[in-house]
Specification:
alpha/beta, globular, TIM Barrel, 4-stranded antiparallel sheet, 12 strands, 377 residues, binds manganese (II) ion
Length: 377
């Protein structure tokens, strides 16, 4: 595996490339052209400039998160072939720039959904959280006001007031798109882009729905083992692969994360590894918050997740995922919720430690006599 950090680009991210390079074991970044619109072709000179920024700092581009897929492709309207051609051109331009991993998602209208961006924990740090009651209190006819109230005035990415007028139109676009239609449109898109991925060896890595169920009546399909394996089979090409995001698949406790990793095997091209802490798992008051990466701080066994990745021979980029805000970082201008420096750096270090321990136990071996003796203590 290759440890990386997500970086939004020098005009958008409060974290600098110099800071990222100083995190032990981090050699690359996962980045994007944050100010492009879904559907637009990424121009070679802009990709080259981004690459130069990263390489001048002594790092490499380990992959793109994300090249977003526009709504025409997702709903499969009359413009989709035009936008697929644009997407193919973007992939070609990335391939020419020696970039070989592209993360994307196929969620209608909204990307990830949380109800709080800064829930305070007992130690004074803050993190993102989800509460079902807050979601259920939203009146779909007054989405903008409800969401603002819900997030205490902080605006979630993708929920900006100026986008809200558009959102009503978007909901309308998706009103006849059920799970089967969305799946067919995704397969259509993937089949169309596989030739350029084959030519440039680009690994497409679909990000799961977050949370792992449908929200606001919009259908979502990439949120379970059966769903993702169905997609792998429908377009059976190694370049049709997965971003394994533990914090997204893991929102549904029925998803057995290590089992999913082993089932997906070499189709995992990118990993987001983070922990969640569940406070209530009843249907009406389902509540979880993003926890520190450590196993003991949340509900996931991080060792088992890393061990499953190790055992499948995972060699792609991996990154710690959303971090908490600690050490007063929240006051830094431009800091993106979940994407501060410090807690993600701690996450990277912890994941590197787990990986080293797993690797050394495997490659050095533990004398079996000793193992047995300890087991029976
Ligand atoms: Mn993720």
């Amino acid at each position: 595996m290759e440890m990386t950090l997500r970086w939004y680009g020098k005009n958008f991210d409060s974290v600098t490339l110099k800071e990222i390079r100083q995190i032990p074991g981090v050699k690359g970044v996962i980045t994007t052209l944050y100010d492009t619109t879904p559907g637009e072709v990424w121009q070679p000179e802009r990709i080259a400039a981004l690459k130069k920024d990263v390489e001048d700092a002594g790092l490499k581009i380990s992959g793109i998160e994300s090249v977003n897929v526009c709504d025409s492709i997702k709903v499969g309207d009359g413009d989709r072939d035009k936008y697929i051609d644009n997407y193919i051109q973007t992939l070609k331009n990335l391939g020419e720039a020696d970039i070989h991993m592209v993360c994307y998602n196929f969620m209608p209208v909204f990307d990830w959904t949380r109800t709080e961006l800064a829930r305070r924990k007992p130690d004074g740090s803050t993190g993102l959280a989800y509460n079902q009651k807050a979601i259920d209190a939203i009146d779909p006819d007054h989405l903008a006001e409800s969401v603002q109230k819900m997030s205490n005035g902080t605006v979630m990415p993708g929920w900006e007031p100026e986008r809200m007028a558009q959102v009503t139109k978007l909901f309308d676009m998706y009103k006849d798109v059920d799970g089967e239609k969305l799946f067919d449109n995704l397969v259509y898109f993937l089949k169309a882009i596989m030739p350029v991925c084959d030519k440039y060896d680009i690994n497409m890595a679909i990000h799961p729905d977050d949370p792992a169920w449908s929200v606001f009546g919009l259908t979502r399909i990439i949120n379970s083992e059966a769903g993702i394996l169905r997609l792998m089979k429908a377009v059976d090409n190694v370049h049709n692969g997965v971003t394994f995001c533990s914090g997204s698949y893991g929102t549904n406790l029925e998803n057995d994360l290590p089992h999913m990793i082993r089932a997906l095997g070499n189709r995992i091209h990118f990993a987001h590894v983070r922990n969640l802490k569940f406070n209530d798992t009843s249907r009406e008051n389902y509540d979880f918050e993003e926890a520190q990466h450590l196993s003991s701080d949340g509900n996931f066994d991080m060792y088992e997740i890393m061990r499953a990745l190790y055992e499948t021979g995972f060699d792609g980029p991996i990154r710690p995922d959303h971090g908490r805000m600690i050490w007063d970082e929240v006051d830094k201008p431009g800091v993106i919720p979940g994407y501060g420096l410090y807690d993600r750096a701690l996450g990277a270090t912890y994941l590197n430690g787990l990986w080293e321990a797993i690797d050394k136990a495997e490659t050095r071996g533990i004398p079996s006599g000793l193992r047995e003796k300890n087991l029976h203590k």
